[in-house]
Amino acid sequence: MTKVYDIINKIPHSNSIFLTVFLIVLYVFLRRILVNQVEKNEDLDQTEKILTNRKIKDYGKIILLMFIFFLWFAKLQTVFISLLAVAAAIVIALKEIIMCFTGGFLIRVNSYFKLSDRIEVDGIRGFVIEKRLTATKILEIGPEKYSQQTTGNIISIPNSIVLSKSVTNESYFQDFSIKSFLFVPHSQDRIEILEKLLLEAGQEVCSAYLNKAKDSISKYCKKEGIAIPSVEPRVKLVMTDSGDVKLLLKIPVDNKEISDIEQKLIKKYLIVNKEK
Predict the structure, then answer these.
(1) N or C terminus of the chain: which is more exposed, having fewer CB within 10 Å?
(2) For residue range 97-122, what is the model confidence (pLDDT) as tens digits?
(3) What is the pLDDT, as a whole number, of residue 13?
(4) Domain final residue, candidates 93, 117, 148
(5) Together in a domain, 152 and 216
């Protein structure tokens, strides 16, 4: 008997195991007694006996599970804490990967942008040339803020960045968009003249597709239920910190010809700025 007792004691959680077995046996024994008592009760009809027996079984199982849970709670608590610690360590170690997958999932579900769209994220602008679940590749535009030229650099952006930074989609109106071009006058005394000449240059550049751009942007805005922006070319004066004034030209552009349009405007501006 001593040897058997020693062997039993070597089994992990032997006391809890035997108590669990005892509770199950006790549950079965008491349930049979109660069921037999119900069956012998002549005051109950057959339907009432069935319902009562079901209640005995259901409540009996609930009470049994509660006792077993409290019996094993301390031991399970240690296991749960260990599992939580392991899970936390995995999450910390794979934090960036998890965030990248989450960002990629949000990009796909919310359709933040698609291939060939012009986007800006955290000061980085460019054309989307590849979308993956963890990263997005773009062909850089810039690096100046108002530049429309591609640099030839391919930048890989981790998708986790969309969880903390806003994404600007410059191709929101699909085929056409409204772009800003900044010009610095050689002389502050000729601002009004240059403003007029620059507006004329902008109107000349976009005259070939202006009506088409208006129709395209108008249809898209109505479809999405948003206010239709002003599409007509316009020039705004921008005051710098030093007190100088710069000219900001806003015109609709064909997204496929943005860099060519920028060059045309620069050439026209250089001509009028030199001659007038």
Answers:
(1) N
(2) 888 888 888 888 888 888 888 888 88
(3) 60
(4) 93
(5) no
71 occurs within a structural domain:
yes
Q: What residues contact 139, with CB distance under 8 A and at least 6 apart? A: 126, 127, 129, 150, 152, 153, 154
Q: What CATH number should be reported for the domain holding residue 133?
A: 2.30.30.60
Measured in whole angstroms, the distance separating CA 91 from the mean position of its chain's CA atoms is: 18
What is the model's pLDDT at position 261?
82
Boundary of a domain, candidates 169, 202, 220: 169
Total domains in the fold of the chain: 3
pLDDT at 7 over 60: no
